[in-house]
Amino acid sequence: MKTSETAKLFLTKDNFLLLTHKNPDGDTLGSAAALCSALRRAGKTAYLFPNSEITKKYEVYVRPYFAPKGFAAEYTIAVDIAAEKLFPLDFSGKADFCIDHHPSNTKYTKYSLIAPSKASCGEIVMQLIKALNGDISEEEANLLYIAVSTDCGCFVYSNTKADTLRAAAELLDCGADNTTLNVALFRKISQARMKLEGMIYSGMEFYRGGQISVATITQEMLKKTRATEEDLDDISGLAGKAEDAVLSITIREQTNGESRISLRSSPAVDCSEICAVFGGGGHAMAAGCTIQSGPEKAKKMLLDVIDEVWK
Questions:
Q1: What are the Cα distances from residue 263, in Å, to 25, 48, 72, 178, 212?
Q2: CA-based Rg of the chain, rounded to a whole angstrom?
Q3: What is the pTM of this model?
Q4: What distance in Å separates the CA atoms of residue 116 and residue 137, rounded to the nearest whole number?
Q5: Residue 113: what pLDDT?
Q6: Closest Cα to residue 34, out of 175, 162, 137?
Q7: Please, which of 53, 116, 262, 304 could form a disulfide with 103 given CB 3.0 to 4.6 Å?
Q8: Residue 21: phi, psi to the nearest 5?
Q9: Closest CA to 248 of 276, 221, 283, 215
Q10: Which residues pair with 261 in a beta bridge?
Protein backbone atom coordinates (compact mmCIF):
# COMPACT_ATOMS: atom_id res chain seq x y z
CA MET A 1 0.00 0.00 0.00
CA LYS A 2 0.98 3.63 -0.46
CA THR A 3 1.26 6.04 2.44
CA SER A 4 -1.90 7.93 1.47
CA GLU A 5 -3.87 4.69 1.11
CA THR A 6 -2.72 3.51 4.53
CA ALA A 7 -3.70 6.81 6.15
CA LYS A 8 -7.17 6.69 4.59
CA LEU A 9 -7.64 3.11 5.74
CA PHE A 10 -6.60 3.93 9.31
CA LEU A 11 -9.09 6.81 9.39
CA THR A 12 -11.91 4.32 8.71
CA LYS A 13 -10.90 2.08 11.65
CA ASP A 14 -10.59 2.44 15.42
CA ASN A 15 -9.33 0.74 18.58
CA PHE A 16 -5.71 0.10 17.55
CA LEU A 17 -2.99 -1.86 19.33
CA LEU A 18 0.55 -1.22 18.12
CA LEU A 19 3.22 -3.91 18.42
CA THR A 20 6.99 -3.53 18.78
CA HIS A 21 9.44 -6.34 18.12
CA LYS A 22 11.38 -8.63 20.44
CA ASN A 23 14.34 -6.94 22.12
CA PRO A 24 12.85 -3.59 21.09
CA ASP A 25 15.19 -0.84 19.89
CA GLY A 26 14.67 2.88 19.42
CA ASP A 27 13.25 2.53 15.92
CA THR A 28 10.41 0.14 16.69
CA LEU A 29 9.56 1.96 19.95
CA GLY A 30 9.86 5.53 18.68
CA SER A 31 7.96 4.74 15.50
CA ALA A 32 5.13 2.90 17.25
CA ALA A 33 4.72 5.51 20.00
CA ALA A 34 4.72 8.37 17.46
CA LEU A 35 2.08 6.64 15.34
CA CYS A 36 0.04 5.94 18.48
CA SER A 37 0.13 9.65 19.32
CA ALA A 38 -0.88 10.59 15.78
CA LEU A 39 -3.81 8.16 15.76
CA ARG A 40 -5.04 9.68 19.01
CA ARG A 41 -4.80 13.16 17.49
CA ALA A 42 -6.89 11.83 14.61
CA GLY A 43 -9.61 10.94 17.12
CA LYS A 44 -8.81 7.25 17.39
CA THR A 45 -8.34 5.00 20.40
CA ALA A 46 -4.78 3.66 20.20
CA TYR A 47 -2.33 2.03 22.60
CA LEU A 48 1.10 0.43 22.60
CA PHE A 49 1.40 -3.21 23.59
CA PRO A 50 3.47 -3.15 26.84
CA ASN A 51 6.47 -5.11 25.57
CA SER A 52 8.12 -6.69 28.63
CA GLU A 53 11.59 -6.38 27.11
CA ILE A 54 11.58 -2.58 26.88
CA THR A 55 14.62 -1.21 28.73
CA LYS A 56 14.58 1.78 31.06
CA LYS A 57 16.49 3.78 28.46
CA TYR A 58 13.40 3.90 26.24
CA GLU A 59 10.58 3.20 28.67
CA VAL A 60 10.44 6.80 29.86
CA TYR A 61 9.49 7.91 26.35
CA VAL A 62 6.88 5.27 25.52
CA ARG A 63 5.22 4.32 28.83
CA PRO A 64 2.47 6.98 28.44
CA TYR A 65 1.17 5.00 25.47
CA PHE A 66 0.95 1.56 27.12
CA ALA A 67 -2.36 -0.25 26.82
CA PRO A 68 -4.30 -0.71 30.07
CA LYS A 69 -5.11 -4.20 31.26
CA GLY A 70 -8.16 -5.59 29.53
CA PHE A 71 -7.94 -3.37 26.46
CA ALA A 72 -9.60 -5.19 23.55
CA ALA A 73 -8.18 -4.05 20.23
CA GLU A 74 -10.10 -4.31 16.99
CA TYR A 75 -7.01 -3.84 14.83
CA THR A 76 -3.35 -4.59 15.47
CA ILE A 77 -0.48 -2.77 13.76
CA ALA A 78 3.01 -4.31 13.69
CA VAL A 79 5.67 -1.59 13.54
CA ASP A 80 9.21 -2.37 12.33
CA ILE A 81 8.54 -6.11 12.58
CA ALA A 82 9.81 -8.19 9.65
CA ALA A 83 8.19 -11.51 10.61
CA GLU A 84 5.62 -12.93 13.03
CA LYS A 85 8.35 -14.78 14.95
CA LEU A 86 9.61 -11.35 16.05
CA PHE A 87 6.35 -10.41 17.82
CA PRO A 88 6.87 -9.44 21.48
CA LEU A 89 7.18 -12.35 23.89
CA ASP A 90 3.92 -11.82 25.76
CA PHE A 91 1.77 -11.24 22.70
CA SER A 92 -0.42 -13.91 21.15
CA GLY A 93 -2.45 -13.28 18.07
CA LYS A 94 -2.18 -11.87 14.57
CA ALA A 95 -1.47 -8.45 13.12
CA ASP A 96 -3.79 -6.75 10.64
CA PHE A 97 -1.35 -4.10 9.41
CA CYS A 98 2.42 -3.95 9.04
CA ILE A 99 4.65 -0.89 8.68
CA ASP A 100 8.27 -1.84 8.04
CA HIS A 101 11.50 -1.09 6.20
CA HIS A 102 13.18 -4.52 6.23
CA PRO A 103 13.76 -6.11 2.79
CA SER A 104 13.30 -9.51 4.47
CA ASN A 105 9.70 -8.74 5.51
CA THR A 106 7.61 -11.91 5.07
CA LYS A 107 4.39 -10.07 4.07
CA TYR A 108 2.48 -11.71 6.91
CA THR A 109 -0.38 -9.17 7.10
CA LYS A 110 -3.29 -8.40 4.80
CA TYR A 111 -2.27 -4.74 4.61
CA SER A 112 1.31 -3.51 4.64
CA LEU A 113 3.29 -0.34 4.10
CA ILE A 114 6.87 -1.41 3.40
CA ALA A 115 9.72 0.80 2.17
CA PRO A 116 13.05 -1.10 2.14
CA SER A 117 14.88 1.96 0.83
CA LYS A 118 14.39 3.81 4.12
CA ALA A 119 17.14 3.77 6.75
CA SER A 120 14.55 3.55 9.53
CA CYS A 121 10.91 2.72 10.05
CA GLY A 122 10.62 6.15 11.62
CA GLU A 123 10.96 7.80 8.21
CA ILE A 124 7.95 5.82 6.94
CA VAL A 125 5.86 6.65 10.00
CA MET A 126 6.84 10.30 9.66
CA GLN A 127 5.23 10.49 6.22
CA LEU A 128 2.22 8.49 7.42
CA ILE A 129 1.61 10.89 10.31
CA LYS A 130 1.65 13.86 7.93
CA ALA A 131 -0.86 12.04 5.74
CA LEU A 132 -3.07 11.38 8.78
CA ASN A 133 -2.96 14.79 10.45
CA GLY A 134 -1.22 17.20 8.12
CA ASP A 135 1.56 17.93 10.62
CA ILE A 136 3.85 16.42 13.25
CA SER A 137 3.51 17.39 16.91
CA GLU A 138 6.53 18.19 19.08
CA GLU A 139 5.99 14.97 21.06
CA GLU A 140 5.88 12.95 17.84
CA ALA A 141 8.97 14.75 16.52
CA ASN A 142 10.97 13.66 19.59
CA LEU A 143 9.76 10.07 19.28
CA LEU A 144 10.54 9.97 15.56
CA TYR A 145 13.98 11.47 16.16
CA ILE A 146 14.64 8.57 18.55
CA ALA A 147 13.55 6.17 15.79
CA VAL A 148 15.58 7.70 12.98
CA SER A 149 18.75 8.49 14.93
CA THR A 150 19.10 5.15 16.71
CA ASP A 151 18.66 3.05 13.57
CA CYS A 152 21.52 4.84 11.83
CA GLY A 153 23.81 5.20 14.86
CA CYS A 154 23.30 8.94 15.23
CA PHE A 155 23.84 9.30 11.48
CA VAL A 156 27.19 7.50 11.23
CA TYR A 157 26.07 4.08 9.95
CA SER A 158 26.31 3.32 6.24
CA ASN A 159 22.51 3.23 5.91
CA THR A 160 22.40 7.01 6.45
CA LYS A 161 21.27 8.73 3.27
CA ALA A 162 20.44 12.26 2.21
CA ASP A 163 16.76 11.49 2.88
CA THR A 164 17.67 10.40 6.41
CA LEU A 165 19.35 13.70 7.16
CA ARG A 166 16.50 15.65 5.58
CA ALA A 167 14.04 13.74 7.77
CA ALA A 168 16.08 14.56 10.88
CA ALA A 169 16.25 18.25 9.93
CA GLU A 170 12.49 18.35 9.45
CA LEU A 171 11.97 16.75 12.86
CA LEU A 172 14.13 19.44 14.43
CA ASP A 173 11.97 22.05 12.71
CA CYS A 174 8.96 20.33 14.33
CA GLY A 175 10.48 20.69 17.79
CA ALA A 176 12.64 17.59 18.35
CA ASP A 177 15.21 18.26 21.08
CA ASN A 178 18.22 16.60 19.44
CA THR A 179 20.70 17.99 22.01
CA THR A 180 19.01 16.32 24.98
CA LEU A 181 18.20 13.13 23.08
CA ASN A 182 21.71 12.72 21.66
CA VAL A 183 23.23 12.97 25.13
CA ALA A 184 20.76 10.48 26.60
CA LEU A 185 20.94 7.98 23.75
CA PHE A 186 24.52 8.18 22.51
CA ARG A 187 26.81 9.96 24.98
CA LYS A 188 26.13 8.27 28.32
CA ILE A 189 26.86 4.66 29.32
CA SER A 190 26.94 2.86 32.66
CA GLN A 191 30.07 1.74 34.50
CA ALA A 192 29.03 -1.85 33.83
CA ARG A 193 28.93 -1.11 30.09
CA MET A 194 32.42 0.44 30.26
CA LYS A 195 33.81 -2.68 31.95
CA LEU A 196 32.02 -4.95 29.48
CA GLU A 197 33.38 -3.03 26.48
CA GLY A 198 36.91 -3.48 27.85
CA MET A 199 36.40 -7.24 28.04
CA ILE A 200 34.87 -7.35 24.57
CA TYR A 201 37.72 -5.44 22.96
CA SER A 202 40.43 -7.46 24.70
CA GLY A 203 38.82 -10.72 23.60
CA MET A 204 38.07 -9.86 19.97
CA GLU A 205 39.20 -12.24 17.22
CA PHE A 206 40.07 -11.48 13.61
CA TYR A 207 39.98 -13.55 10.44
CA ARG A 208 40.94 -13.04 6.80
CA GLY A 209 43.73 -10.67 7.73
CA GLY A 210 41.41 -8.56 9.86
CA GLN A 211 38.56 -8.29 7.33
CA ILE A 212 36.30 -10.27 9.67
CA SER A 213 36.07 -9.15 13.31
CA VAL A 214 34.32 -11.25 15.94
CA ALA A 215 33.14 -10.07 19.35
CA THR A 216 31.77 -12.62 21.81
CA ILE A 217 29.72 -11.78 24.91
CA THR A 218 29.31 -14.66 27.33
CA GLN A 219 27.10 -15.05 30.36
CA GLU A 220 30.26 -15.13 32.47
CA MET A 221 31.27 -11.69 31.14
CA LEU A 222 27.84 -10.29 32.03
CA LYS A 223 28.12 -11.81 35.50
CA LYS A 224 31.59 -10.36 36.13
CA THR A 225 30.65 -6.86 34.99
CA ARG A 226 27.11 -7.02 36.42
CA ALA A 227 25.86 -5.84 33.03
CA THR A 228 22.17 -6.26 32.26
CA GLU A 229 20.07 -5.92 29.12
CA GLU A 230 20.05 -2.20 29.86
CA ASP A 231 23.78 -2.11 29.16
CA LEU A 232 23.69 -3.97 25.84
CA ASP A 233 22.00 -1.38 23.64
CA ASP A 234 23.75 -1.15 20.25
CA ILE A 235 26.49 -3.47 21.51
CA SER A 236 26.78 -4.99 18.03
CA GLY A 237 28.37 -1.81 16.73
CA LEU A 238 31.62 -2.33 18.66
CA ALA A 239 33.16 -5.09 16.54
CA GLY A 240 32.85 -3.04 13.37
CA LYS A 241 35.14 -0.32 14.75
CA ALA A 242 38.23 -2.36 13.87
CA GLU A 243 39.94 -0.40 11.08
CA ASP A 244 40.25 -3.25 8.55
CA ALA A 245 36.91 -4.92 9.27
CA VAL A 246 34.61 -5.44 6.28
CA LEU A 247 32.28 -7.81 8.15
CA SER A 248 31.78 -7.73 11.92
CA ILE A 249 30.12 -10.46 13.98
CA THR A 250 28.74 -10.10 17.49
CA ILE A 251 27.84 -13.33 19.30
CA ARG A 252 25.79 -13.09 22.48
CA GLU A 253 25.47 -16.23 24.59
CA GLN A 254 21.94 -16.70 25.92
CA THR A 255 20.91 -18.28 29.22
CA ASN A 256 19.31 -21.21 27.36
CA GLY A 257 22.54 -22.11 25.56
CA GLU A 258 21.65 -20.46 22.25
CA SER A 259 23.66 -17.70 20.59
CA ARG A 260 22.14 -14.46 19.33
CA ILE A 261 24.01 -13.19 16.29
CA SER A 262 24.33 -9.66 14.88
CA LEU A 263 26.18 -8.98 11.62
CA ARG A 264 27.29 -5.62 10.25
CA SER A 265 29.15 -5.11 6.97
CA SER A 266 30.22 -2.88 4.12
CA PRO A 267 28.41 -3.24 0.76
CA ALA A 268 30.89 -5.99 -0.16
CA VAL A 269 29.04 -8.55 1.96
CA ASP A 270 25.30 -9.29 2.25
CA CYS A 271 24.58 -9.88 5.93
CA SER A 272 20.96 -10.89 5.30
CA GLU A 273 22.08 -13.69 2.98
CA ILE A 274 24.29 -15.11 5.73
CA CYS A 275 21.66 -14.82 8.45
CA ALA A 276 18.97 -16.32 6.20
CA VAL A 277 20.84 -19.64 6.36
CA PHE A 278 20.02 -19.74 10.07
CA GLY A 279 16.44 -18.52 9.72
CA GLY A 280 17.23 -14.88 10.36
CA GLY A 281 17.19 -11.77 8.22
CA GLY A 282 17.39 -8.01 8.09
CA HIS A 283 19.21 -5.64 5.77
CA ALA A 284 22.11 -6.20 3.40
CA MET A 285 24.52 -4.41 5.75
CA ALA A 286 22.87 -5.23 9.08
CA ALA A 287 21.12 -8.48 9.96
CA GLY A 288 20.66 -10.98 12.74
CA CYS A 289 19.72 -14.53 13.64
CA THR A 290 19.77 -17.08 16.44
CA ILE A 291 21.90 -20.25 16.35
CA GLN A 292 20.98 -23.21 18.54
CA SER A 293 24.44 -23.70 20.03
CA GLY A 294 27.06 -22.07 22.22
CA PRO A 295 29.32 -19.22 21.07
CA GLU A 296 32.30 -21.30 19.88
CA LYS A 297 30.25 -23.64 17.71
CA ALA A 298 28.11 -20.75 16.49
CA LYS A 299 31.26 -18.88 15.43
CA LYS A 300 32.52 -21.86 13.43
CA MET A 301 29.14 -22.33 11.75
CA LEU A 302 29.04 -18.66 10.80
CA LEU A 303 32.57 -18.64 9.40
CA ASP A 304 31.79 -21.73 7.32
CA VAL A 305 28.71 -20.06 5.83
CA ILE A 306 30.62 -16.83 5.24
CA ASP A 307 33.23 -18.78 3.27
CA GLU A 308 30.41 -19.98 1.00
CA VAL A 309 28.61 -16.65 0.65
CA TRP A 310 31.63 -14.33 0.52
CA LYS A 311 34.21 -15.94 -1.72
A1: 16, 29, 38, 28, 10
A2: 19
A3: 0.86
A4: 26
A5: 98
A6: 137
A7: 116
A8: -85, 170
A9: 215
A10: 251, 289
Looking at residue 85, its pLDDT comes to: 93
CB-count burial class (<10 Å; 0-12, 13-18, 19+) for 152: buried
Q: What is residue 160's predicted lDDT score, i.e. its pLDDT?
A: 93
Return the CATH number of 3-186, one of 3.40.190.10, 3.90.1640.10, 3.30.70.940, 3.40.50.720: 3.90.1640.10
> By C-alpha distance, which of 148, 2, 22 is closest to 81?
22
SS3 call for 107? coil
Reduced to 3 states, what is the DSSP secondary structure of residue 281? Answer: strand
Q: Which helix (H) or strand (E) holds 291?
A: strand 286-291
- With respect to CATH, is domain 191-309 assigned 3.40.50.300? no
Per-domain residue ranges for the chain? 3-186, 191-309
Whether 3-186 and 191-309 share one fold: the answer is no
- Alpha-carbon distance of 86 to 280, in angstroms, equals 10
Name the stretches of the chain with pLDDT < 70. Answer: none
